[in-house]
Automatic annotation (TrEMBL):
The protein's annotated pathway: Porphyrin-containing compound metabolism; heme O biosynthesis; heme O from protoheme: step 1/1
Job of this protein: Converts heme B (protoheme IX) to heme O by substitution of the vinyl group on carbon 2 of heme B porphyrin ring with a hydroxyethyl farnesyl side group.
Organism ancestry: Bacteria, Pseudomonadati, Pseudomonadota, Alphaproteobacteria, Rhodospirillales
Primary enzyme class: transferase
Superkingdom of origin: Bacteria
GO molecular function: transferase activity
InterPro entries, sorted: Protohaem_IX_farnesylTrfase, UbiA_prenyltransferase, UbiA_prenylTrfase_CS, UbiA_sf
Transmembrane domains' residue ranges: 34-53, 59-79, 100-120, 126-147, 179-202, 251-270, 291-308
Name of protein: Protoheme IX farnesyltransferase
Similarity section: Belongs to the UbiA prenyltransferase family. Protoheme IX farnesyltransferase subfamily.
Organism: Inquilinus ginsengisoli
EC number: 2.5.1.141
Length: 310
């Protein structure tokens, strides 16, 4: 069925492929929307880290985080091109449309991954480069190639890949990995399951068709909703954690608490909806709020730190 779908999509894309890929196609390989979150949380880790880094080196570190994340996304698209062709939210990606050959996408991703790590190590420090390399390898080999198609806990374990950016930003300044940076890692790590399961709830039919064992497909909506609520409850104290360890002030703590409570309320609302249509609507709203939550809580962290040191 996957091959048939690929053929069906590849035929109308033949004219596009003949015209050659554009820079927009290569940029799309980098998953720019995901990259935005990655870069923002990386900046937050860099800003709140103790010590000083030259602005040029700071910009270089952020560039390396962005390029490394985008490169991992390109390799992910290369590996997942079969299931991407089946799902409506991914069937427009450049490889599936025939805009970029799979081998070109793989080479593009590998080259950028190596370049990002080397530049980070040579220009900033090798601790940050090592964490960046670990994040890329974890996303490609552990999540994409190993977990995604094998276990409903794929996003729980594999979600660690997306939690590294603030730790990389922190290491770029300090040259080490300490408790506060691990806490920032934990914040994103605990945020990822309810964020992604909200998406999986209203896309469960597509995941089932593609053969991806997301939690709603394997365990059903009820168990997924229960775990979403559990993770938002566990996330609440972690969200306040930066204040507890002294890298954020009371303003951050109050804001983080409010954001966390709203996240819990979103999960409760999803939990209470039994009808498929209303459940999907509540899950979509929770998915949208989860993105806002991550931007807002790391934005609070940056603003709080900046205000204190202004």
């Amino acid at each position: 069925m996957v091959d048939v779908t690929l053929d069906r999509i590849a035929k109308p894309a033949a004219a596009d492929a003949a015209a050659g890929a554009t820079w927009q196609d290569y940029f799309a390989l980098l998953k720019p929307r995901v990259m935005t979150l990655v870069v923002f949380t990386g900046i937050a880790g860099l800003v709140v880290a103790p010590g000083h880094i030259h602005p040029v080196l700071a910009a270089t570190a952020i560039l390396c985080i962005a390029v490394g994340a985008g490169a991992a996304g390109a390799i992910n698209m290369w590996y997942d091109r079969d299931i991407d062709a089946i799902m409506s939210r991914t069937c427009g990606r450049p490889i599936v449309r025939g805009r970029i050959a799979p081998s070109e996408a793989l080479g593009f991703g590998v080259f950028l991954s190596v370049a990002a790590v080397l530049l980070m190590g040579l220009a900033v420090n090798w601790t940050a480069a090592g964490v960046l390399a670990l994040a890329s390898a974890f996303y490609v080999f552990v999540y994409t190639m190993w977990l995604k198609r094998r276990t409903p806990q794929n996003i729980v374990i594999g979600g660690a890949a997306g939690a590294f950016p603030p730790m990389i930003g922190w290491a770029a300044v300090t040259g080490d990995v300490t408790l506060p940076s691990i806490l920032l890692f934990a914040l994103i790590f605990m945020w990822t399951p309810p964020h992604f399961w909200a998406l999986a709830l209203f896309r469960s039919g597509e995941y089932a068709k593609a053969g991806v064992p997301m939690l709603p497909v394997v365990s059903g909506a009820r168990e997924t909703k229960r775990q979403m609520l559990a993770y938002t409850l566990l996330l609440f104290p972690i969200g306040i954690g930066p204040w507890l360890v002294g890298i954020a002030g009371l303003t951050y703590a109050v804001g983080a608490a409010l954001l966390g409570l709203l996240f819990i309320l979103c999960a409760v609302r999803v939990m209470r909806e039994d009808g498929e249509e209303t459940r999907h609507r509540a899950a979509k709203q929770m998915f949208g709020y989860s993105i806002f939550y991550l931007f807002a809580i790391f934005g609070l962290l940056i603003v709080d730190h900046t205000a204190v040191h202004f």
